Amino acid sequence: MALVLNEEQQMLKESAKGFLAEHAPVAELRAQRDAGSESGYSNALWSQMVSMGWAAILVPEEYGGLAFGHVGMAQIIEESGRTLTASPLLSTAILGVTAINLAGSEAQKTELLGAIAGGELTIALAVDEKIHHDPMQTAMSAVAKGDGYVLNGEKRFVVDGSTADKLIVATRTAGSPGDMKGISLFLVDRTASGVSVQRTEMVDGRNAAIITFTDVEVTADAMLGEQDRGFRALSATLDAGNAHLAAELLGIAQESFDRTLQYMKERKQFGALIGSFQALQHRTAHWWSEVELCKSVVLKIMQSLDEGDVKSPALASIAKAKLCEVVELSTNEAIQIHGGIGMTDEYEIGFFIKRARPAQMLYGDYNYHANRFALISGY
Amino acid sequence: MSDIQVFRQETREWLETNCPQSMRSPVITGEGVCWGGRKWTFESEDQQLWMERMGAKGWTAPDWPTEYGGGGLDKAERKVLKEEMGRIRARSPLDSFGIWMIGPALLKFGSEELKQQHLPPIIRGEIRWCQGYSEPNAGSDLAGLQSKAVDMGDHFIANGQKVWTSYGDKADWMFCLLRTDPEAKKQMGISLMLFDMETPGVTPKPIKLISGSSPFCETFLDDVRVERDQVVGEVNQGWTIAKYLLTHEREMIGGMGLTGAGSKTLGMIAAETIGTTDGRLNDLFMRTDVAKWEIDAAAFAFTVERVTDQAKAGQGVGATSAMLKYYGTELNKRRFETLLKIGGSDDLVWEGEVSNNGWTARTLLRTKGNSIEGGTSEVQLNIIAKNILGLG
């Protein structure tokens, strides 16, 4: 398949760009933050996104979705990286949909996917238990009791965890932390008895949560997929999540580059535009080259996900790792080249680093994914 | 069956009949490459046969027009030919600066007579070309070149010195940039001329490199007669053609960042040499280096793919060849630094079986030139800043 966007994908990108610039610019993120928004995003904006079909993009047609694919979704996510738009797209429309579609029973898919597509259901993925992402280390317990299970443990860095209707929770039903086998996924209502949610406001002005499960009783049909065999679906869900985080980081890397390039053509020092200085030109040219590489890895993983290619896990890790590296360069160079004004809260360029760092760390940073890629590659 | 399916079947049959068995394996580290030309000694009868058959068919230059002996293939057919050659692991029948560089320039800028004269022998591998661009005082500042050609009416007399002439001692003809108007602004007084390396006054002398090999020459020009009809394009308009050729050269060198399909990955080499425990390389710092390189190399390979596909779709930025050249050569340098570390002290042995005669070390040394030749990395960054980013 040619590594370019087709006409429909290009059109979706353009329409997402126009919509987000008008309805959800960086100023909107500032407003959410300053108002201390409970969800970290605007419910009105989410409703508009749902009505445009964005929540349904990854949902198969037979469950009321558009089945437009990852390449299409990535265009929206990339553009929302440029505008730093907060929304439940990642947690609900990407992670939630992927996990349910991969692991869910026919009944679960029918009930839940349609509800997500229609904007009636939001999801949060509860996977991390420690300060560094490592899903195989899942320790939270789920013990069979009667015809159901009892859940005990704690999850952290649960994006949208304080507002989502349902949680997808990774638990251990067999084996020990570090074992791939023995992990099971459950769907749990956020408001269920024994679920205690502590909202944590993050660097990017968005919300995550620390969620404690104390003797939470669920029925057997709350299980997503087979007992002890949840890791495969979890891993594939995280691949999709990381691919789209890479797309968001690509938007951030490009926007911080574009804004800085523009600034270099306006800002004068020593009687000359700072863009005329070769010391900055070479850094900027190198930076641009790195961003070009990022465009390629992101498009590659999205096409791979749409084709169900077996290389997807490796490509997801390549994409996330490369984007973590380059967005770090981008956000740091952006501030350095802007100089003092880049350090102020009033100027928007500093918002990009503050969103980039949590997005980098979420579901594994550079080190995690470089390590994972090496293991997949046999070293 | 569609036309292209018919073409595929015919191509497959033709290759099956005409590609000798010994030409159906990859070229290893330069051995087995065929450069052709008057001075060429074929490694085997098969090598000669393969070059001649492909040359006669025009498939050494598959996209060139048939009227000059080229293959006349369209994009889809070229892709099929490439795939079918790949299928039987057929070697390139002919590597040639004629095909890669001066040929495309002649097709675009040359007179009908020049095309008729030079293109057919290039395609058949009979004439090997070299490039006379750089001079001792004109490296990155190529337009500052001083070797001159004085107009004598029906011919020019050229004097000066060229340097970094690739395979100058093995080539038959040179395409050469010469100053024809010393008064004009430097880019405006340059002409591109062609002459036979046997012309009296042309003296190529090999330069020994830090790698021990001598792929380059310095070439002295003492009262060399160049016929007027061997000027490509107009007199004093050579710079435009030179820039066009440099773009081709950049793309060629940038491709070095790509490791060939089927060759061992850095990770595989590291794992075999250093060993693994629980699936992890035994040297964890090395493991980080290798993984970082492989991630960058994958990203670069996808970028070459994307830029190529964009060009086919009529999208994209023309000046991206500067980025590919910059990134690809820096990547290739990093690859050999990592390979040498993996190879350890054995790979420092200059001559001997243990190091395949110092192959890694010698290649590492050779790669240092990748980011200098065809425009230094710094020149590429200037091109990106100026032409793509609009920084003045």
Structural commentary:
The complex is a heterodimer of chains A (about 375) and B (about 400). By secondary structure, chain A is of the alpha+beta class. Chain A has helices at about 5-25, 25-35, 45-50, 70-80, 90-105, 105-115, 230-265, 280-305, 310-340, 350-360, 365-375, and strands at about 125, 140-145, 150-155, 165-170, 185-190, 195-200, 205-220, 225, 270, 270-275. Chain A has 3 domains: about 5-120, Butyryl-Coa Dehydrogenase, subunit A, domain 1 (Orthogonal Bundle); about 125-230, Butyryl-CoA Dehydrogenase, subunit A, domain 2, CATH 2.40.110; about 230-375, Butyryl-CoA Dehydrogenase, subunit A, domain 3, CATH 1.20.140. In chain A, the strands form 3 sheets. Chain A has a 4-stranded mixed sheet with strand order 1-4-5-8, covered by helices on one side. In chain A, strand 6 (about 195-200) and strand 7 form a beta hairpin. Chain A is globular, with a radius of gyration of 21 Å. The two termini of chain A are about 30 Å apart. The mean pLDDT of chain A is about 95. Helix content of chain B is about 45%, strand content about 15%. Chain B has a 4-stranded mixed sheet with strand order 1-4-5-8. Chain B has a 4-stranded antiparallel sheet with strand order 2-3-7-6, with no helix packed on it. A two-stranded antiparallel sheet of chain B has the order 9-10. The termini of chain B are far apart. The model of chain B has no long low-confidence stretch (mean pLDDT about 95). With about 400 residues, chain B is of the alpha+beta class. In chain B, helix 9 packs antiparallel against helix 10. Chains A and B meet through helix 8, helix 9 and helix 11 of A and helix 7, strand 10, helix 8, helix 9 and helix 11 of B.
